[in-house]
Write a structure and sequence with these properties.
By secondary structure, the protein is an alpha+beta fold. The chain is built from 18 helices and 49 strands. The strands form eight sheets. Strands 1-2-3-4-5-6-7-8-9-10-11 form an eleven-stranded parallel beta sheet, with no helix packed on it. Strands 13, 16, 17, 18, 20, 21 and 24 form a seven-stranded antiparallel beta sheet that branches. One of its GO terms (biological process) is DNA damage response.
Length: about 900
Amino acid sequence: MAGPQELGDPLGEGALEAEAPASSCLAGNRLNLDVYPEGCRLFLKLYEKRREEVEQVEFLRLSCNEELITSTLSTIPVLKGLKSLVLKGGHTRDEIGTPQRGLVASLPQELGELSHLAHLDLGFNSFSALPPCITKLGSLRSLLVSHNSLQGLPEDFGQLSNLTFFSAMKNQLQGLPQSIGELAALETLDLSENALESLPEEIGNLQSCTELDLSGNLLTGIPSSLGNLQSLRQLHLHSNLLVTVPASLAGLHNLSRLDLQNNRLRSIPPEIQSLPFVHLRGNPLGEPEVPLQPDSNSRPEKLQRLFLEAGEDSFTVTPEGCRVFLACGVQFCFPLGATTTSVTIHFQKHSPDPQWVKLKDHDILLSEVLELQPHEIHFQKEVLIWLPYASTQYLHDREIVIRTFSGQNWSDLKTRVEWKEKPKKHVACCSVPHFSWFLVVSRLVENECRVPQEGALLFSTVDPNIKVTFPPGVTEETRTVKLQVLPVSSEDLQEITNDPETVASPLLCLSQNSSIDFLQPVQIQLPLPPGVTGLTLDRSRVHLLHSDWNAQNWNDITSQVVLEFTHLYALFEVTHFSWYWLWCTTKTYIGGFAKYVYKRLRMYQVNFIALQRKKDPEQVLLQCVPKHKVDPVLKRLHDRYRGPEPSDMVEMVEGEQFFAAFERGISIDADRPDCTDGRISFNFFSHLKNVKEVYITSEVDRKSKSVKGQVSFYRGAVPDDIPEEVTKRRKGPDSHWLATLPIKLPKLKSQGKEQPTTPNGFSLPPLNLGNAETGYLTQANLLAIAGRVGADWPTIGLNLGLSYQEVEQIRYNYRDDLGAQVLHMLFSWAQQNEKHPDCVDKLISAMKESGRQDIADEISAIIALGRQKYRESIRRVGLDQESSTEDSAIAMV
């Protein structure tokens, strides 16, 4: 098949008249036009010019992402000898790299008359139902309809009596017709990642079936008739809701893999559990019967429900157990008898500090750190925790895990993902015997197996073409081996390298729980890079790279191993594990080149924004936003904020530190825990909100003129000092500068901006809200808060409990002075509620309800800082009763 460059202009008359390209295009009765930008138009032109030749085509491929695909479909039925037809979408991608569905949602009825058609691929299209013409294709042996929106299959689906391969993965199938059992020739059935809740008993009639994939559905049970599938070799049931499996599966004598991972199995028939090829990871086997949905009414025992409001930071658990719902979305289930006495649980959320939260390469943080105390208590029964996490809409081929900190290191827990209807979000769930620190992470899928003396086979669920074979005698003692795969798309690689001829396989990472090399070589199978086959392979361009665990250096080991090639795969042997990467390129210094590409694969393209509140320009919102989220973020903030265009795109790594510094006459007007000498520290996490709101001021007299300043963003931790020449030079070789955005403080108005400390007729009382243990709000803190409130004070006053008449009276008494209105409202409320234990929480809630999350966050930061200082003072005088281990852990946070 000639490439586009050989065909020249595929749409021009000259190209169609040229004998060489036309004959090349039609050689061997094959017409592969999905590689051309406008292949459908080329097909129609070819049909017009060379109709007799086109009608003899037996193998046809077209892209369904073209507008002409609809008119092209009506021509296809004239190809009476057609044996293979591929009409796939996914050839174009949106701005964030997601493959676009094809435009085809139906097929002409005449397509059912293609009596020789044996292979039909309709993947990545827009079908909501299977076209009726398909069940008329009596010769059809292979049917692929993956990545569509099918909700069901027709009742006459069993008419496809010659079908041997059927894939409907990644659809919305909710059920199967009974006629599915009539597919007597079917060998492979892939129904993974659908919405199947049950299976018909007739599925047990598929006597020829060797591989059945039902993973990623909503199955709570499977029919015992599956035990009749005596030809079955692989049965994939992972990532369902199975609570039991029939014992009849143990009678499948040809079965070599039974995958039951990530279900809800608490017990399993012993004859199945003893099978050497069964995979059970991610099931709560042996755990007490606790419902997976805290709001389910199917619990064997009724537990008390506790609903906590915002601002509450503790609750009490009794031996009777309870279910707890925090305002932030976190949920707990303490089963009956989890504690022997009443225990008070304290909880607190912490911002993730990269110096403490150590992420691995390609990890993505999806939540803040949740600390649960007391740490030292071990529960009599394990407690279930549900943690909400950030949306992972664009994360594919990954898995969600809850990670916990033991006081010394982080480790991953067995985790399952569930969907909560109220509120509509995904949550990660795990069970724990004691409390510590928890967070949610998205990581590369981890496949593992135990390798005994007899050997084993390990393959990747992300790319099943990647396999590791352990021969007999490879080890003396059984060891555990883990495999992770990082897919690298051709588009990403070409964008980074700017070299269309450089291609690479997925990255393979292998690890084991032993420091001893294997006794015999282990064989690894990697797929050849895209576009490369064993027939077209130029061995001089092939490089096998190996790296250390940190992937800091990549070494070309091609000459050190024996590389064998099949049509699709590369095979080689090793005795120790780490990273492996297969490249096909003309580059010479491939190690350094791969190091650069690997670094770029970890980076995110981001923009900085700096916006000022329309009602109060002294309030500035700073945010670091991934490139594909900039427009939605700006649209959401448009009504309340204004400011310059976002910065130019820069690249950052997950967890990277950076800081913002206000310059040219502008500084920060508050004491903040995250502020050092007027510089605000940030940590970039791609799926968390990297946003802070600060208040700025200027030493320049603004009564006569405005102040034009700027905010600059720098890579790295906040330094002790930023040399003046660096702020001027910006892009010098030793500068960490990322971006600079202008900030303007307008000229002060004659009225309303000057806020007297003591308004006419009103004196500020000396007071402290809160208490020493939880943190105070002092008079100085309230004055600073009052300076931020502005015109929102009436709404805040009403949410604090002031009556409408009281608000109107304040408005009238101080009608010419906005500052006095704010002070009178805030301090009169504070004076009345000073002794109330929940007054600070009420103030935070009122700010949130009034749309002033910025002030609520500032109050919370002040309280947290005060609480920290109180604990430090207690430790200094030796009154702290907590363990030194816990103290050091809190200090780390």
